[in-house]
Amino acid sequence: MRTPRRRRRALLVAATAIAVGAVAAGCGGGDGRGGPIVIDGSSTVAPLSEAAAEQFQDRNSGARVTVGTSGTGGGFAKFCRGETDIADASRAITPEEIEACAAAGIGFEQITVAYDGLSVAVNLENDWAQCLTLEQLNAIWAPGSDVSSWNQVDPSFPDEKLVLFGPGTDSGTFDFFTRAVNGEAGAQRTDYDNVGEDDNAAVTGVNGSLGGMAYFGLSFIRENTDKVRALEIDDGSGCTGPSAETVQAGEYTPLARPLFVYSADTALARPDVEALLRFYVEQNDAISSQALVIPLSQEQRDTAIEQIDALAGGATE
Amino acid sequence: MSDPDRRRLRTGARNAIRAAGEDSEALALGMRSRAEVWKSTAFLALLLLSVLVALSLLFTLILDAFLDGRSRLNLELLTNFPSGVPENAGLQSAIFGSLWVIGMMILTVVPLGVGAAIYLEEYGEGNRWYKRVIEVNIQNLAAVPSIVFGILGLGMIVRGPLSLGQVAYAGSLTLALLVLPTIILASREALRAVPSSLREASMALGATKWQTIWHHVLPNAIPGIATGAILAVSRAIGETAPLLLVGATVFVTFNPDGPLSEGYTTLPVQIFNWVSRPQDEFRVLAAAGIIVLLVILLVMNSFAIWLRNRYQRHA
Q: What is the value of ipTM here, to two decimals?
């Protein structure tokens, strides 16, 4: 009868000891940066950063990079508290965010790493709409808009109910689209199907409703050509559809958008962060194709390398 | 009472019992009205339907995940690290991350929860107001949405007073807060179920209160506490939202070195990430990941049940 009781006691003592030890160790630890390179931010840019991190780590054993997807805004919030080394962003940093960074003493640099064509998707069976003007898009998505049927967009369109899907208000995609189409970031009608950060839900939604419409990154069009179709956009200089060529040539306006990474000055002083950013630009074609976004042109790549050269030079002074 | 009185009483009682027995026999022989028989059959059918709905829903979900993910259920899924190329992507860092986070959570939350339960059951005085306040608070905590614990973890553990940074143990502590009420409530039930005769016997033999609890009450309560721990693990292992807030990231290609290692991911976080990717292949991976998560949960729970049964036999 003694053995089991003793074993029982030993187990309890061991469990308590380990827990207390862990708590004690926990209180002492927590040195900030210096571990892995921490990247966080836009879920649109994340596949790109993951591809870069993956290929970078393949070639540099011992390098450690983590990528998070807190959204562009969430990424900047962490970045400006010094909790991350690099922020992924699908829009430029806002004045408020710059202020927050400045208040924490964090200097940063913006580097364009790829391009995306924000695409307006419709149902495959939609045989009436090929191209919409910017005014028509604005009429559909403007704040307070009461357009509810396709024939209100253009009298030649059928009387088909318009079903709208869009991302959540924390997303950089939302900010960019509303600025480009409605003239003000964040201004948009509110009676649409909010899919949050899950663009696949928008694809499924548009695929399931004849009068459906949604906007998301070009990669979701490319991966779902059997489910949805992208509209051409007319900004006054003719109809242009989203594609690698039109985006790179600057013809797909105003919905072509640059994708950025922001690096903290202090992080750039670390040789591994500098090497990662250099790798990001030099291996841009391979990284972009893995992430299904549009790579930088040769000229844009040269500009980015010059930027990094200048920064790295400045940091070592 | 005289003897005849007593005898009369006994006979009366015996007759009453016999009558009751005959009544119930009559009932059993179908003397009830047709409407009542119908009602009780309908009731039984409804109960079976509830069980069926719950089971078929669960079964459909598991089957759906299995059919979707079956093509990727192989050893590489377990040994590879996450990758942007779906063919190379695997779950190793997520599996190790989940095991670290959940393991450290259990080691932290069980002593805390059992301690609180012992205080409330064995030491806390009857109906003092502060004990009631604690009790109401614990019950309310159990109903707080998990994202709120994530915000608390971010403000108090990752930043703020503890300032651990975005390390695996910060995730463990956040989940520990989340499941603490479960552990406390289950442990209290377990302690209450230990017969008070055991405590009294121990005290009567001269044991102190502490000795009584440590040597007699607690060992007998272990099966119930283990049940609480199983519930806690089952809830914690599937949590995504609070972990995303306290630093679990979606792309980590190395395993945690220990509880204070920065950069970790867990299975639900990895599944969440894969579901939102444009490529179909990632959704297949997510389904396979769900199966892996279920298997790991089953293994962990089986271990806890084995442990519980061992103690039940010895107790």
A: 0.74
